[in-house]
């Protein structure tokens, strides 16, 4: 993604955002005046993905508060909510916050699944593992 990138000193910052949930590899080597040094072993890392907190399980609210952990560098989050009882997507939401509450009631007795993904200038990251809940009001 950044082949040939160089830095003066022992730190370097990517010129553009990395995509949340994407795995990357990095290797470094010193550049001497008379020769190039040996490459370091490759290090693997993954940019963080938001973690869904709730709702999950049986809930007693028709308008639950969806919450998740933020991801450094995310400029917004995308939430999808599916009604598993009907097989329909009931919401796709874009927000800059780390919580969201629907402006409509979810259906009593229905089972739902939701996921969250972070977005930045590099694109939409990986989706969080799905979280399921059932509305019982």
Task: List the main descriptive attributes of the protein structure presented here.
137 residues, mainly beta, 3-stranded antiparallel β-sheet, 0% helix
Secondary structure blueprint with pairings:
Blueprint: E1 23-26, E2 43-46, E3 52-54, E4 57-59, E5 66-68, E6 76-83, E7 88-95, E8 99-100, E9 111-120, E10 123-124, E11 131-135
Parallel strand pairs: 4-11
Antiparallel strand pairs: 1-2, 3-5, 5-8, 6-7, 6-9, 9-10, 9-11
Structural summary, described in words:
- This protein is 0% helix and 38% strand.
- The chain is built from no helices and 11 strands.
- The protein is elongated.
Broad structural category: mainly beta
Strand/helix succession: EEEEEEEEEEE
Radius of gyration: 21 Å
Distance between the termini: 50 Å
Structure summary:
With 137 residues, the chain is mainly β. The protein is built from no helices and eleven strands.
